Inverse folding.
């Protein structure tokens, strides 16, 4: 099994995963409001080490979240494995 796949951007799973990210509350822990131009980023889909309900999760990160003033990561369970694809490998140059 591959250790990394990408989520198809034209899939319902893409829309669902992003809706989970934007609806997940992040508790405010920063002392002062933080203004940043950083955004959530999709970092790929990865297999769970010990799958129970789902085989894969989508990883999102925010490098400097305004609510916490630090990096935040979210794992969203993949509900549709067919929405994943393996990106082609770039040829290695030495």
């Amino acid at each position: 099994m591959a250790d990394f796949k990408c989520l198809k951007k034209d899939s319902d799973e893409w829309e669902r995963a992003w809706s989970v990210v934007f609806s997940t509350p992040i508790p405010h822990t920063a002392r002062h409001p933080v203004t940043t131009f950083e955004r959530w980023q999709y970092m790929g889909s990865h297999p769970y080490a010990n799958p129970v309900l789902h085989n894969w999760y989508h990883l999102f990160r925010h490098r400097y979240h305004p609510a916490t003033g630090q990096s935040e990561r979210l794992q969203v369970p993949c509900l549709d494995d067919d929405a994943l694809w393996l990106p082609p490998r770039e040829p290695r140059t030495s």
About this structure: The first strand starts at residue 6 and ends at 7. Helices lie at 12-23. The CA atoms of residues 8 and 83 lie 6 Å apart.
